[in-house]
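Suppose a colleague, Dr. K., hands you the sequence of a protein chain of 291 amino acids and asks what its three-dimensional shape might be. Before reaching for any lab equipment, you can write down a predicted structure in token form. Begin with the sequence itself:
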Amino acid sequence: MDKLTQLGHDIAKLWGTYHASYLNGILSTLILAVVATAIGCIIGFACGVLQTIPHSKKDNVVKRFFLAVIRVIIRAYVEIFRGTPMVLQAVFVYYGLPYFTSLRFTNVWVAAIVVVSINTGAYMAESVRGGIISIDPGQTEGAKAIGMSHVQTMLYVIIPQALRNILPQIGNNLIINIKDTSVMFIISFTELFAAHRAAVGATYLYFPSATIEMAAYLTMTLVASFILRRMERRMDGSDNYELVQTDMLTATAGTYNYPGKGTPFDERNPEHENTLRQAQWDRNNDKRGER
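The predicted structure, expressed as tokens, is then:
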């Protein structure tokens, strides 16, 4: 109990002295994670779409060669950035480029966004590719049947459906980026983990500062998870759909279940056939009555 009391006292002491540094670190972490995830999604969508462009042996040789080169480049990009730690990617981008070229980052924000974005794009490329190929091929065939081009098919038919399928992965990448931005301290980017290191360096209260940091990361990821789940439910739409029948000529979409029940407009409908027989029987009886 005394240890918990001491921990609470140390946390209060740290927060009272360094709360501005912690809050600035939290803000920097959120901005970096959100911006880099958005840019990474754009990169991933571009790579995913390029990998799924259809081609066959009947296509032009130039087109097939161009698509093959693009796919090799994308595959190399994905494998390299998925197969290496982000902290090393940051070192290679921030320190490696000036080592081999004259390119140098003068703004650490730009460097951090570039590193996290291209890392996220590598993961999103495979998620988007999987989301696109998961759509029923009949959707593409139907779009082509009504004269839509490949670009129109992707924009208006495939991608809207794939987006719903990969939304959980987008949220997963955002949550991962909130945590993994902690490695950006290697290039002197001041985010939450850097604020924690600064406080520990001044007070040597490592565990109390780590407790504050852990609570902050957990709060950010829980809020992000809540918002993303709300977005998923919103994209799912309503669970209750009612058929609108303002005109008898448009009454039958989605209501026909042959042979149990059909519509009055289907001549093979058993109910409709019974109605015709009854009407014929009534007409015959009327003629007999007239005689």
